Amino acid sequence: MSGLISIRISEKLQEEMKKYDINWSDVVRTYLESQIKQMELLRFLKQNSSAMKRAKVHADSAAMIRADRGSR
Q1: Using CA atoms, how far apart are residues 10 and 21, in angstroms rounded to an integer?
Q2: Which pLDDT belongs to residue 13?
Q3: Whole-number Å distance between alpha carbons of 46 and 40
Q4: What is the per-residue pLDDT across 11-26, written as a single tens digit (0 to 9) for each?
Q5: Quick check: 55 pLDDT over 80?
Q6: pLDDT at 72 over 90
Q7: pTM
């Protein structure tokens, strides 16, 4: 199933769009999909920010530096 969105643009913009062989529906659809993904990510980060603040990661930096130097 699909939905339909209609927008009003100026005649000047419409004429400019006609100059290019571009599927504008695909351009708009791709943009909307990317915006939704960004908004979902922001919502996830907001919902989980308190849990992420409490999480602590422990790493032995000296061991990591030695391993990096040893790989050179």
Answers
A1: 19
A2: 97
A3: 10
A4: 999 999 999 999 999 9
A5: no
A6: no
A7: 0.62
From CA 37, how far away is CA 43, in angstroms rounded? 10
Cα separation, 10 vs 42, whole angstroms: 33
Domain definitions of the chain by residue range: 11-70
CA-CA distance, 23 to 60, in Å (whole number)?
Answer: 53
Rounded Cα distance, 60 and 31, in Å? 43
Looking at residue 26, its pLDDT comes to 96
Rounded distance between C-alpha atoms, residue 54 and residue 11, angstroms:
54
Determine the 3-state secondary structure of 20 from DSSP.
Answer: coil
Decide: 37 and 30 in contact? Cβ < 8 Å: no
